[in-house]
Amino acid sequence: MLDYPWPTLLATVFIVLLAYSVYGLTGFGAAIVGIPLLAHFYPLRFAVPMMLVLDLCAGLMFGLRDRQQVSRTELLWMAPFVLMGMGMGIVLLIHVNERWLLMLLGSFVLFYALRKLLNKNTPQAISKHWALPAGVIGGSLTSMFGTGGPIYVLYLAGRITDVSVLRASLGILIFSTALVRLGLFTASGFYMQPSLLPLAFALAPLGFLGYWLGSRLHTRLPPQRASQAVWLLLIGGGASLLWRSIRM
Questions:
Q1: Which has the closest alpha carbon to 138: 38, 31, 243?
Q2: Of the residues 29, 88, 186, 232, which has the maximum number of CB atoms within 10 A of its CB?
Q3: How many angstroms separate the Cα of 70 from the Cα of each of 49, 60, 92, 187, 221?
Q4: pLDDT tens column, 180-239
Q5: What share of the chain is helix, strand, coil (3-state, %, to 5)?
Q6: What is the mean pLDDT of residues 95-101?
Q7: Residue 227: Cβ-neighbour burial (10 angstroms; 0-12, 13-18, 19+)
Q8: What SS3 class is residue 121?
Q9: Cβ(202)–Cβ(107) below 8 Å
Q10: CA angle 208, 239, 91 (to 5 degrees)
Q11: Where are the domains of the chain?
């Protein structure tokens, strides 16, 4: 049974459609768009595991294409550090006060969006030793908010020059970490929260609809304009979370 008022549920429908439209439009995960907006209506410990269910559904449908192009060497080298970070992240999500989590999420989203909006430089080759900080930070953000994808992109884009291999590797990495998160969240009791799973499964068709809408827009909008709109949306979402955390 869904125990939330209709205005909240209507806002949730809009957020899920928007987040997965962005996913269909740009090809990156919906969590970094959806979580900052959902956090205005739900506790993070509810919104993050709920969004994970939608991400897993989307990953099963869209995220496992071109598996044969994955760079197994890069992913295996990075995996232990990602797992280390995910362990740290789940501890922080469980024990840290919601206010500080919102402040961290808002700061990260705002910084990332501003960097992408202002930075026009192409990725440069980096050492494999950057896998340690990238894995730990990305894994922590993945467990806490589902937003570790940008960190993985920053690292792997400096290691993999072939765009097809990069996209395939990111897809497998993000889907694999989602499966690990599912185990961590289940063991931590997050899915025992009333209404969480019913709401997530009720929203799943909207995720597919949003992906379809975004895919249609992808063929009609200039990529640069679409990306700029996403970064501006994230700037607004990150700034609003920071403001909310300060006022708590």
A1: 31
A2: 29
A3: 27, 16, 31, 30, 29
A4: 999 999 999 999 998 899 999 999 999 889 888 887 876 777 767 777 777 788 888 888
A5: 80, 0, 20
A6: 92
A7: middle
A8: coil
A9: no
A10: 70
A11: 6-247
Give the CA distances from residue 215 to residues 20, 179, 212, in Å, rounded to whole numbers and listed in that order: 10, 25, 5
Kindly tell me the burial class for residue 162, based on how many C-beta atoms sit within 10 Å of its own C-beta (0-12, 13-18, 19 or more).
Answer: exposed
Backbone angles phi, psi at 81, to 5 degrees: -75, -35
Residue-level pLDDT at 29: 67
Locate 162 and state its tokens.
Answer: 């072939």
* CB contact at 8 A, 117 and 228: yes
Give the distance from CA 171 to its chain's centroid: 12
The stretch 4-17 carries a mean pLDDT of 91
Mean pLDDT of the chain: 86
Q: Judge if pTM exceeds 0.70.
A: yes
Mean pLDDT value of segment 145-157: 86
